[in-house]
Predict the 3D structure of the following.
Amino acid sequence: MAIFDEEPRRKPRTHEIGQDLSLLSVGELTERIELLREEIRRLEAELQAKGATKSAAEALFRRG
């Protein structure tokens, strides 16, 4: 068993807003678009959850 990994670990693919896109292939651009769509879905879900929590809190305080 080797002490060190044989191959260096690759960083997960990320997208940086405003980065140069000219060197990316069509496949890489497609991957980035899907990555960003998944992130938008995640953000929207969190926004809805926070909205539901806020609505519940407002309803609770209106009763009193």
In short: Residues 26-64 form one domain.
